[in-house]
Amino acid sequence: MSAAHSFVCPCCGYPGIECPPWEKMGLPPWTDHGQPPYSQRYGFPSFACCSCCGFEYGFDDDPGASGAATSFGDYLADWLASGGNWFSPARQPEGWRLDEQLRRAGIVRTPTDDE
Ligand SMILES: [Zn+2]
Description:
0% strand; mainly alpha; 4 helices
């Protein structure tokens, strides 16, 4: 797999996304993503689901589609609270660690009240 064809999930930092989550998103490091829906900032979403966290780009962040505008930070916190299981478990690399994945993508996790 060439790095040129690999994009990074803006929610969990998974680096194996096959097409850009949004047409104008690009690769990390990112600055502030702003508020959902992210199509306001990044143009057309791919409507793909992340193999790791399961965020559906253009759906989970769009109140017109999913009924709620979920930010990447909120989704990540909810996903971790529900166990942090891979959406496509077969894609999970051996020895995978979320902290490392987030760090590489420059994603700072917002601690929840439970932590
Ligand atoms: Zn993800």
